[in-house]
Amino acid sequence: MINKTLYIVSLTLLFFVQSVVVHAQHDKSDRWEKFRAEKVSFLTDKLDLTPEEAQSFWPVYNKMEKERMDAQMARRELEKQVRDAGETMSDKEIIKLTREFAQKMDEEGTLATKYNEQFLKILPPQKVLKMYKAEGEFRMYMFRKYRDQREGETKKD
């Protein structure tokens, strides 16, 4: 009897945890899609791309964004390793970790250089400069929006 009850409770708990995880992943995916859509709209508005420019620009920009995100995630993982590194690490381990960290930073810079050249082949230089400005403006817009939402939530409490 106890085994059957334990089994049912365990199974119920497993389904509950699984549904929470799936819901959290779905929420994260929805937020990411909303963020992406807002960014595309923001950049499209700021860059004033012609249809021909947009057709060439967006596939390259999306590829850059993916590569940049992958590089940033890898760097963040190394940042975590650096933060968690203890004094018990050998000099050899520390050297390896610091070199990997520097390499990841270098990769991000190489990506920026690579894609800058591609954008200059697609867009007039003025629009490439506008793109960089618009990305910065979008980041500031999102920071303000997030801050305002957080302040709104604390006022409700």
Folded structure, characterized:
The protein has helices spanning 2-47, 51-84, 91-122, 125-156. It has 157 residues and is mainly α. Among the domains are: 51-123; 125-157. Helix 1 packs across helix 4 and helix 2 packs antiparallel against helix 3 (91-122). The longest helix has 46 residues, at 2-47. The protein is flat, with a radius of gyration of 23 Å. Mean pLDDT is 83; it is low at 9-17 and 19-24.
C-alpha Rg (nearest Å): 23 Å
Mean pLDDT over all positions: 83
Which stretches are poorly predicted, pLDDT < 50 over at least 5 residues?
A: 9-17, 19-24
The span between the termini is 46 Å
Helix content bin: over 70%
Number of strands: 0
Tally the helices: what do you get?
4
Structural class: mainly alpha
Choose one word for the global shape: flat
Q: Which percent range describes the beta-strand content?
A: under 5%
Q: Main beta sheet, described? A: none
- Summarize the helix and strand pattern as letters: HHHH
Organism: Maribellus luteus
Keywords: Signal
Protein name: Sensor of ECF-type sigma factor
Signal peptide: 1-24
Helix/strand layout:
Layout lengths: L1 H46 L3 H34 L6 H32 L2 H32 L1
Key attributes of the depicted protein:
4 helices, mainly alpha, 0% strand, 157 residues
What would a concise description of this structure say?
The chain has 157 residues and is an all-alpha fold. It has helices at residues 2-47, 51-84, 91-122, 125-156.
